[in-house]
Write a structure and sequence with these properties.
alpha+beta; Alpha-Beta Plaits; about 20% helix; 23 strands
């Protein structure tokens, strides 16, 4: 069995949309019936976008599973001989069996054409919306700018939509003129039922001067469909294309007047986990944000989602704690949508004040430890290999790429180094300068790792004392760091070298798998120090 991906173009004029319905013929129905005849199998395609009646497409995407020996790239040629003239497969290819056109990260692009003339043009009637009143395109573009970014688009969603989650992200939303037509191009990570057509209807009202561009922001904030404009007719709308991400973006950052968060997803494929850092969020939207991110990362293949919130650190208290039984023990959790989250660990700030504990004169072992800045590709590769060995299993310790390590090593505010002793590389050290809550700038240990075979020989302590001596010599009154409560080996090491707890900086929670109702543990690394 293999999975074939089709890129489909169609004129939607004579179809009741994409999805199979009882009241008329649809594009999906035609593809199913045609493929079944061609391949001699019972074929059911899965489409990426369920376009409405009368809506066109240049690049909708569908997949189907088959036992047919026809090569994936030849399917388009064979299928087009059987399809009606208003449907065409413009490309076909075999894809991995887990590829799903709606579940993989993608960017969808739609265009909407408005024929803005005094009189109708009959040959354009099926592919544009005729609107005879003059439109102010500049005002419409100022209004469209308020739609960019991540928002709750419930105000621009038809009342018939059957969706729980109405937050989407738009990357592009603007008009340009092509002779007598205004063409609206909008791209995003997803769209609600009739969302583009309602946006166009609303922007047309801005273009006529019914209300100013700034009113679009008020419509978004209201979350009231009644305040938005009418739903524009379907014939002007075309699904221009869908672009799938070959690789997940390492990190997504969203900041608007409602929330500010980052979703670190670089380790979804490698460690099957993701990290949600919430810096700011309206209290009433907190549950929805966490639930939405959990759904997203689980769909992308993660087993775990770690969450922490700077504004509301104790999420279990803010969102309401309940209890569940695990092996006879009662444990507390909070709920966000369909997901349960349990407390996992804290990240604590530790300080060493040099007035109370000044660095002593370096010992022979401490002087024998060489701290070597990264200069070559080989150095960076070695650093990454050691980092992976030391920190792979630590919760919320995400991985780095060689490009990121190079950027860190070139940053004057960072010291990314290899530790060498007796001519051998024994570990790594990452120092940085941080601004504390009171505005004081001081050096901080960001990462310290010793390779397993060199552990318990005093090299980690030697690195700490070398760093402390350098900081004191530069006139800093203290050195700081942050360490997870679960990293007991590192905490004992830092306590031994004069660090003491100052405050708890973060409370991390982890999602319980909603299906199996268990918390999955990460794989254990063979060597851990840091």
């Amino acid at each position: 069995m293999k999975r074939i991906k089709l890129t489909v173009a169609y004129d939607g004029t004579h179809y009741c949309g994409w999805q199979i319905q009882k009241n008329g013929i649809t594009v999906e129905q035609v593809l199913n019936e045609t493929l079944s005849r061609l391949l001699g199998e019972d074929i059911h395609v899965i489409g990426a976008s369920r376009t409405d009646a009368g809506v066109h497409a240049l690049g909708n995407v569908a997949v189907y599973d088959t036992k047919s020996p026809i090569p994936g790239d030849k399917v388009a040629y064979a299928l087009n001989q059987w399809l009606p003239e208003d449907i065409s497969v413009v490309d076909s290819a075999e894809v991995p069996g887990d590829f799903h056109p709606r579940h993989h990260n993608s960017t969808k692009t739609y265009t909407y054409r408005i024929l803005n003339t005094r009189h109708r043009v009959p040959v354009k009637r099926l592919y544009s919306y005729f609107y005879h009143r003059p439109l102010d395109m500049e005002a419409m573009n100022r209004a469209a700018a308020y739609l960019l970014g991540e928002h709750d688009f419930v105000s621009f969603c038809s009342a018939h939509a059957q969706v729980k989650e109405t937050t989407r992200t738009l990357y592009q939303a603007a008009f340009h003129r092509e002779r007598d037509e205004l063409v609206f191009t909008v791209s995003g990570n997803g769209f609600l039922y009739n969302m583009v057509r309602i946006m166009v209807g609303t922007l047309i009202e801005v273009g006529t001067g019914k209300y100013p561009p700034e009113h679009v922001k008020d419509i978004l904030d209201s979350r009231d469909r009644e305040l938005a404009g009418p739903c524009a007719p379907p014939e002007g709308l075309t699904l221009a294309g869908i672009v799938y991400e070959e690789q997940l973006a390492p990190q997504l950052v969203v900041e608007n007047d409602r929330m500010f968060y980052s979703l670190v997803q670089r380790d979804i494929r490698k460690k099957r986990c993701a990290y949600l850092n919430i810096f700011r969020c309206r209290r009433e939207e907190l549950d929805n944000l966490i639930s939405r991110m959990a759904k997203k990362v689980y769909r992308l293949g993660a087993d775990r989602l770690y969450v922490q919130c700077r504004e509301y650190p104790r999420l279990d208290q803010v969102l309401g704690a309940s209890k569940y039984s695990d092996a006879g023990n009662d444990k507390e959790y909070f709920t966000a949508g369909d997901y349960r989250f349990v407390f996992h660990h804290t990240v604590d700030r530790l300080d060493r004040e040099f007035r109370a504990d000044p660095p002593a004169e370096l010992t022979g072992r401490q002087r024998a430890l060489a701290v070597i800045p990264l200069e070559t590709d080989a150095d960076r590769k070695t650093y990454l290999e050691i980092y992976e060995k030391c920190f792979y299993s630590l919760p919320c310790s995400h991985s780095y790429s060689e490009e990121e390590i190079q950027a860190l090593s070139e940053d004057p505010g960072q010291q990314v180094c290899l530790l060498r002793a007796d001519g051998q590389t024994v570990g790594i050290l990452h120092m940085e300068y941080v601004t504390l809550d009171d505005g004081e700038i001081c050096p901080a240990i960001s990462a310290l790792g010793i390779i397993g075979e060199w552990g318990r020989k005093g090299w980690a302590g030697a690195a700490i004392e070398r760093a402390a001596a350098d900081a004191a010599r530069q006139g800093y009154p203290r050195m700081t760091l942050q360490v997870a409560s679960t990293n007991k080996k590192a905490r004992q090491l830092y306590f031994k070298h004069g660090f003491y707890p100052i405050t708890t900086k973060m409370w991390w929670y982890v999602a319980i798998d909603p299906v199996k109702n268990i918390v999955k543990s990460p794989q254990k690394s063979v060597d851990t120090q840091g």
